[in-house]
């Protein structure tokens, strides 16, 4: 379920069937080998964690975090769920 439009076609969404609601980032500009599954990343393990980072100002999009070698793992279930 989409929860935030980051712009530049990037969207954050909650994987509702997952335990705790994993927050995913759809980043179509990061396509790997023309596979759609290579455009989905795990932004946070659960919605509560994502909201806490947002409110604390510690999430990846904060100015201090930009350029610090941000790494988000690919969503392992993307290929089987898309």
Characterise this structure.
With 82 residues, this protein is an alpha+beta fold. It has one domain (2-68). 17% of the residues lie in helices and 27% in strands. It contains two helices and four strands. Strands 1-2-3-4 form a four-stranded antiparallel beta sheet. β2 (10-15) and β3 (22-26) form a beta hairpin. The two termini are 13 Å apart. The mean pLDDT is 85.
Largest sheet descriptor: 4 strands, antiparallel
| Helical amount | 10-25%
Q: pLDDT below 50 for ≥5 consecutive residues: which ranges? A: none
Count of discrete alpha- or pi-helical segments spanning 4 or more residues: 2
What share of residues are in beta strands? 25-35%
Total beta strand runs? 4
Mean pLDDT, rounded to whole units?
85
Q: Structurally, how many domains make up the residues?
A: 1
C-alpha-based Rg, rounded:
12 Å
CA-to-CA gap between the ends?
A: 13 Å
Q: How does the helix and strand content classify structurally?
A: alpha+beta
Strands of the widest sheet, in order across it, are 1-2-3-4
The 3D shape can be described as globular
What is the succession of H and E elements?
Answer: EEEEHH
């Amino acid at each position: 379920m989409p929860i935030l439009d980051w712009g530049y076609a990037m969207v954050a969404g909650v994987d509702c069937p997952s335990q705790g609601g994993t927050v995913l980032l759809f980043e179509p500009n990061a396509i790997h080998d023309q596979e759609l599954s290579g455009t989905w990343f795990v932004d946070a393990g659960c919605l509560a964690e994502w909201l806490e980072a947002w409110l604390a100002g510690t999430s990846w999009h904060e100015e201090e975090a930009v350029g610090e070698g941000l790494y988000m793992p690919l969503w392992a279930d993307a290929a089987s769920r898309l």
